Amino acid sequence: MKPGIHPRYQRATVQCACGNNFVTRSTVPVIHVEVCGKCHPYFTGRQKLMDTAGRVERFRQKYRGGAGGAGAAGAAGAAGADKAAG
Ligand SMILES: [Zn+2]
Fold this sequence. Notes:
By secondary structure, the chain is of the alpha+beta class.
């Protein structure tokens, strides 16, 4: 490595909104996250909307009572993907 141009790669504490903390390494000393492996619905198995801006609700309203089965299945799949990603 060329000296003097690389950021310091140091111990970093990750603090989640759920209260979980863990240590990793990063160029910043503290990382704040909203969701982690301890509280994400994908890992907990619990239904929990990560959405705070009401986007999931608007999506459901938009596609509720739509053109039929295919549309409903598509909406359910997209909602599931949204939860997994969020
Ligand atoms: Zn968490």
